[in-house]
Design a protein that fits this description.
The chain is mostly helical and 796 residues long. Keywords: Cell cycle, Cell division.
Length: 796
């Protein structure tokens, strides 16, 4: 009955029938209460988006998988301190983080959102060293600005690691299914004269599970939990599935040990004949802890009677055929799809291959042997070889390792593959990840032109996917090429109309281009696709903001943040709208909320700088602009406003240098040229200022602020006719009604010295309402429609 119920639950999860799975799993737990079954029930609730139910079910449990699932539930409920305590108990600092790469990745997320950047980076790197294909960990490292070059992370050493994992797990899987003669031997040994029933063995195994620290590589005990990896787990979870103890029981074979741990932080065993090259091999193996199903002394007597007349064991025959030592010094436990994998620790090469020891918690019934640090080494005799071989797989020695890698065939994804094919496939996959990873890393470093060049190296079929095209659109957005960005996002929508990746940035592109019809259509499409996605409400908010309805826009951005409090861009957009509504206090709070989520979100640093600039807190303004500049050192707009803050602090020389850098960074951006002219005017270098403005007219021929500033300069030089001409040109360009009044007042007082100074300054500060929408810098701000207005530009 237990096996049938378990299989039904797994099938229900496999076909997304979560209500049925929950109902049947509750019957399973009621009839056969055990922590393993509780794990399956918690998995059902987690997959049904009921983290609170999984939280209450698993609270107080101690098994490794239980702790991992409990931490996932806590993370989804934003109980980060409890999630951290579950993964790494404070009173047991030596306990390994469960579930290998997935556990370290989850721990990295917890540390990231509790503002412990160094610890987060460490765990992301640990996750990658265990599983080189855990792309999500590399993404997080890129976002934190701590990623190594993709060529180092996805190197040949990683390919060797992947090959070894698959081969070891393939051998373990093969040894789980012994020939009939061996199966009879195991069955006889398990039930023989001791008269132990399979149910008793199962309960003994379940009890011992409580002492196992965790599973490797996100492997799970129940196949149901493995059928859909949790929280960014590896996509090849089926390969690392732990065989169900019930299924094994029904087959007549004694249940294998459920877990063999890889211990990234535990003590290393002796290095066994390795060298420093990526292709270093293991010359001998170690014996892992053995499961005591019955008393040790009785087990020796049983094994002596059962195996005295039997033929050679399967493992002995394999070793003999491969020419290995007949008296193998050690064996490894297999049965849950876990491996002793080589470590990749931040370097470009796999300097050594070491087998990690298995840490055992108090009260467990495993024998501890062959571990260097203070543990005893027991002699290895024939009876123990037979006993161990019933629950373990033989790890190839140095003489047979190459033969195993090349000749052994293992099932992967329904296809039989040998070592060379696995290596070829892993190398091809890592080659693709190297290009994608390097492009993404360049984007996160805001080296967008380099990122675009890297993405062009992708094969055509990969370049024209939704994710890549969205990244291309973001890169064009950062370099203020909105037309190319729109083209890339349009192709992304065509390739993946169901994907919301980058749609918040796409809506900002349309905002800058003032494509109100396209923006409205996009917002409606996204809301129809997914009303619970923050990107949908960002697009809706941008649509209202373009219509100058800032209050409604703010409500939409607040809805986005409510749906995902860790959506940094949503907090930033709220800040923009608060500033547009002259609510600077709440604007500052929103920007700070964004920085708590992502300290490298330079949009918010810029937003704070703009608020303090408008409040004439120039020192604060310079600090925040400089922080934004350190994160995005290629942004022409950030350079421009950093120079403006410097000028306000009477550091005009540094300000001019910064403006020149901004002009070189983006010659199409008129903002730094205008501000440079303002600085030259304040230094009374009229000729140089006019020269800059004459050049600027070519880039912004319809900007009224340019002609108004030229009129001011001519007035200061007592060239009243030219001043009148340029004031008239400024009026002809149809500025806002307020600016029209200011310009007319300046004309009336043309012959009155210096009286129009304040009015013109006011005109310049309001020139952000002009047509210079293309001055905005990518997603620095959704509304960076600032103009050439010197000291005080407004966010809209």
């Amino acid at each position: 009955m237990e096996g049938i119920l378990t299989d039904c639950v797994q099938n229900s999860l496999r076909y997304f029938m979560y209500r049925n799975a929950i109902f049947l799993c509750e019957r399973l737990c009621a009839e056969f209460p055990s922590e393993v079954n509780l794990q399956l029930l918690a998995t059902c609730y987690l997959q049904n988006n009921q983290a609170y139910a999984a939280y209450n079910i698993l609270k107080g449990t101690q098994m490794a998988l239980s702790r991992y699932l409990f931490a996932v539930a806590c993370y989804q409920m934003d109980l980060l301190s409890e999630a951290e305590a579950a993964l790494s108990p404070v009173n047991e600092p030596s306990v390994e983080i469960p579930n290998g790469a997935a556990g370290h990745y989850l721990m990295g997320l917890i540390y990231r959102y509790t503002d412990r950047r160094k610890n987060a980076i460490h765990h992301y790197k640990m996750a990658l060293s265990i599983d080189p294909l855990l792309w999500a960990a590399y993404e997080e490292l890129c976002m934190l600005g701590a990623a190594e070059e993709a060529t180092a992370v996805f190197s040949e050493a990683a390919a060797l690691c992947i090959q070894k994992q698959y081969l070891q797990n393939g051998l373990a899987t093969q040894n789980l299914y012994l020939p009939n003669e061996d199966r009879n031997l195991v069955s006889s040994k398990s039930a023989g004269t001791e008269d132990i029933s399979p149910r008793q063995l199962k309960h003994m195994q379940a009890n011992n599970l409580r002492d196992i620290p965790g599973n490797y590589h996100g492997a799970v005990v129940s196949a149901a939990a493995a059928s859909q990896p949790l929280n960014g787990g590896p996509s090849n979870a089926s390969f690392y599935n732990t065989p169900s103890p019930i299924t094994t029981q029904l087959s007549g074979v004694a249940p294998p040990p459920l877990c063999r741990n890889l211990q990234p932080n535990g003590p290393n065993l002796n290095m066994l004949g390795t060298d420093s090259s990526p292709k270093s091999t293991i010359s001998s193996t170690i014996q892992a802890p053995r499961r005591k199903f019955v008393d040790e002394g009785k087990l020796r007597k049983i094994s002596g009677r059962l195996f005295s007349d039997s033929g050679p064991r399967r493992s002995t025959r394999l070793a003999g055929e491969a020419g290995a030592n007949a008296n193998m010094s050690t064996t490894t436990v297999a049965g849950n799809g876990t491996t002793n994998s080589s470590k990749y620790l931040g370097g470009s090469k796999l300097s050594s291959v070491a087998l990690r020891s298995v840490t055992l918690r108090k009260g467990q019934s495993w024998a501890n042997e062959n571990i260097d640090e203070g543990m005893r080494n027991e002699p290895f005799d024939d009876s123990r070889a037979n006993t161990a071989s019933t629950v373990s797989s033989s790890f190839p020695t140095s003489d047979t390792r190459s033969a195993v890698q090349e000749g052994t065939t293992v099932p992967i994804g329904g296809t039989a593959m040998n070592g060379s094919r696995i290596m070829t496939g892993a190398s091809d996959l890592l080659g693709l990840l190297r290009i994608l990873g390097e492009g993404y890393r360049m984007s996160c470093m805001y080296r967008c032109k380099d990122a675009l060049d890297v993405y062009l190296k992708l094969p055509h079929k990969h370049y024209n996917t939704g994710w890549v095209l969205s990244q291309v659109g973001k890169a064009y957005f950062e370099v203020v090429d909105y037309l190319e960005a729109e083209r890339a996002f349009t192709l992304a929508r065509r390739a993946s109309p169901y994907s919301l990746e980058g749609m918040d940035i796409y809506s900002t592109v349309l905002y800058h281009l003032k494509e109100d019809m396209k923006l409205s259509y996009l917002a409606q499409e996204l809301i129809t696709t997914d009303r619970l996605a923050p990107q949908s409400w960002c697009a809706m908010g941008n649509c209202y903001s373009l219509q100058k309805d800032h209050e409604t826009a703010l409500k939409n951005f607040q809805r986005a943040v409510q749906l995902n409090p860790r959506f940094a861009y949503g907090h930033t957009l709220c800040g923009h709208e608060y500033v547009a509504l002259e609510d600077f206090e709440n604007g500052i709070r929103s920007y700070q909320s964004a920085l708590r989520v992502d300290a490298r979100h330079y949009n918010s640093w810029y937003g704070l700088g703009m608020v303090y600039l408008r409040q004439e807190k120039f020192e604060f303004s310079e600090h925040h602009f400089r922080m934004a500049f350190q994160i995005s050192p290629h942004s022409s707009v950030i350079m421009s406003y950093l120079g403006t803050a410097m000028h306000a602090l009477k550091r005009s020389g540094e300000a001019i240098e910064m403006m020149e850098k901004a002009i070189l960074a983006d010659k199409k951006n008129p903002l730094p040229m205008y501000q440079k002219a303002n600085i030259l005017l304040s230094l009374e270098k009229f000729d140089e200022a006019l020269e800059v403005l004459e050049e600027l007219k070519e880039y912004a021929p319809r900007e009224s602020g340019v002609y108004a500033l030229m009129g001011k300069i001519y007035k200061r030089r007592n060239m009243h006719e030219k001043a009148m001409l340029h004031f008239g040109l400024a009026l002809d360009l149809k500025p806002s009604a307020t600016d029209v009044a200011t310009i007319k007042a300046a004309i009336e007082k043309l012959h009155v010295p210096d009286e129009i100074e304040d009015n013109l300054r006011l005109l310049i500060s309001r020139s952000c309402e002009s047509d210079l929408s293309f001055v905005g810098d990518s997603h620095t701000n959704r509304g960076l429609d600032v103009t050439m207005g010197g000291e005080a530009a407004t966010l809209v």
